[in-house]
Amino acid sequence: MAEQHDLAVTFAALGDPVRRAIVERLTDGDATVNELAAAFPISLQAVSKHIKVLESAGVVSRRKVAQTRPVHLEGASLARSAGWLEAHRRRLESRFERLDELLEQRKGST
């Protein structure tokens, strides 16, 4: 049940296009809030709020490095989400394959 909650929180956090863009940017490496904010036509405070949502979901983390607190992408959270999606994609694909087989059998019997 905890895994379902974690997935729901992760998917909710990734439901916003700004947060997805932040995650995409972080695939290139860590960045400060100021560096991330420079890419968006929204306030620094708004970007900070988006980062807090991602942090609460476990998608990103921050640590102190000298005078900065770079934002770091946490791959484990995304990997769990991708694994869940992949498992369901395989199940659907299997069902479609069975349906194709049934349709082929039906075509062959007419």
Describe it for me?
It is a single chain. The chain is mostly helical and 110 residues long. The chain has one domain (2-109): Winged helix-like DNA-binding domain superfamily/Winged helix DNA-binding domain (Arc Repressor Mutant, subunit A, Orthogonal Bundle). 68% of the residues lie in helices and 5% in strands. The protein has five helices and two strands. It has helices at residues 2-13, 17-26, 33-37, 44-56, 75-109, and strands at residues 60-62, 71-73. Helix 1 packs across helix 5.
Numbering strands along the chain, what is their spatial order in the largest sheet?
Answer: 1-2
User: What's the quaternary structure here?
Assistant: single chain
Instruction: Determine the CATH topology.
Output: Arc Repressor Mutant, subunit A
Shape: elongated
- The overall number of domains is 1
CATH level-1 class: Mainly Alpha
Q: CATH superfamily assignment?
A: Winged helix-like DNA-binding domain superfamily/Winged helix DNA-binding domain
Which bin fits the share of residues in helices? Answer: 55-70%
N→C terminal distance: 48 Å
Per DSSP, what share of the residues sits in E-state strands of 2 or more residues? 5-15%
Overall residue-averaged pLDDT value: 88
| DSSP helical segment count | 5
